[in-house]
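Forwarding the complex inputs:
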Amino acid sequence: MSDRPQYLGEKLTHAHLHRRREEIQKQHGEAIAQVNTMLETQKVLGEELGQGLDTLQMQGTELDRLRATEKDTSLLASLVRPFTSRRTALARRSVAEGLLKHYEKTSTRLREATAFSDELKLCALEMQQEVDRLHRELGQALHNQRLAAERILECEKGLEELDGLKISKEQRERRHDRYTFDLRTEAVALELFKSSAGQCRQHLEPARALRNTVLQLHEDMAQYVLGATHTVNAAGRRIQGLGMMADAPIVVQELQESLDELNQAMEATQHYIENSRKLIEEVLPDLSAKMDADSEIDVADLVGSLESVDRARSRQMAEQALREAAESEIEDLLRPED
Amino acid sequence: MELPYERVGPYVRALQASLNALAPNDDHVPLSAALAHLEALDPVTSGRLLIPAEYSIKSGMPSFAWMERAIAEAKLARQSTDAEDPSDAKLKSVAELDQGLATRMRDRRQLHQHLRRARLLPTTRLTAAVRRLGKSTDFSVRYDRMVPDSRWLRIRFEVRVPSQRRSAGPLVADAQGRLKVGDSLQHFITRHFADPLVALHKQLEEATDAQVFRLSRSLVGPFWFPGVQIPTDVPPSLGKGLMLHVSSEVVAEDVHMDRHLDPWIEPPKDERPPDGLNVYRERRFAANPAVLPEAQKWAERLGFRNIVVPIARNRRRDL
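Prediction (whole assembly, two chains):
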């Protein structure tokens, strides 16, 4: 008896299955809420960076205007230059200070984006952990399902062979009772394992989709942070020299280069935020709808199935379970790993 | 120039030790803020979070971008509390999923906890206070800045107006002694901070329409070490060890005679301090044993004694 294959995992009961279903639904609900919160964070980040971009564009336009004024060699421009030089110097100074403040703000947003990227990675890892758990449970359920099916068929075989055995009537009745009891017990177990496997399969897809969504967000964010950090660092090196030269003509060129670099970073941000928003706006509602539909499949269905277990059905179920287990093994071999 | 990661910690700690050895006074940027800022940059505190660790090839001081990253991180740190940081148990569970991520989260927690308690050096900051409301109205102004070659500058000046006046240009005190400072003063100093000292003194008197009875301009840096461009007018051997400069120029009525104690910079020719004020200049060095004797000999050869101090060894910390 000790060599007999054992069921894997915790002893499965109707209550256990119900509890696990609720737990998975709760976890998915929380994960969707978490991703929604992340979207909110991104929206705030995007809006702030968007405002920064507007400011930069204004500063860039102003710099272009200042440069054009300086290069204007017309008689009128030469005549008025002595009277406007102070105003031009003040305008340059104001742009330089605006740029420095904006740089500091952008730098802070980048630090925030870097930390956020790590949050996304953690979220993706935790979701992968959930996918792994569902796979593990599915594997156990399929193993147990096959085992229960084999046991049912063994009992069936035992019952069929009972009539041909040369044993006493009492012994035959005792063995018949034993087989019948085992048959019913294993049939219930098979139904539970089958339900557990179905539950895992049902939740795997949304769990995988959520993980992929967050992974995509993380990859995009990490790539953006890498590029933007490089650009902002380069801009920082130029900006460092601004104060000393705030009134020198060369500063206009330096400023323009800084602005161009920051503009690139900001444009990349906008592009990224738009992409992420689209991703989440399309993926999340679908997932939520699927989750809602799944939750409507009541455990009462399972109770009904358990109550209607009879010998013919349990034999049919066992054969079906073995076929499914074989198909599942082939499927597992063919499917790429998550 | 970028420091390789394994050299970041030794570099930052060498700079801290040099600052500790020189213990710059209140004419310089605040020592506690400078040390706290460097501690934030130290990989022992922040891991790889604040790299790339860049320094100015001319001054050997940490670059503006590197220093500013710590300031930006400090702004983030103050948006949350220690209680909101990930717990040890959380970090342990994350480490089981991804060791690299767990390390970054632990570094960020450590850095934020440090930054919530520390005051850092500013990129540019002007602060002012009323020092006296009595026989005269005195104002004290401090302007701190990371200058373009990455040295740390403080310009400090004391302004006096007659007692019946409560303002000195952009400095305006109310009856309770509360002070308002117009933005124009910071812009003004930003443009002129590098002007010759006596010219700067004159410009500040014009800008404040008041008597500036003490003005100091002090710098921390350069910090020479192998990898920094050593000026051609000093022995190249001085660049083979660690050597931090702190320098001050003061024009003040409490300086009783002109003195020049800077072996590196010649006194300006034809400098004429305002009546009743004299100019004092000094430069001190902290050097490690590799260059200490050479640095002392160089200074003595130029006629300056006791201006080089040894760098004390920092408490050793493992990465």
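The longest helix of chain B spans residues 99-117.
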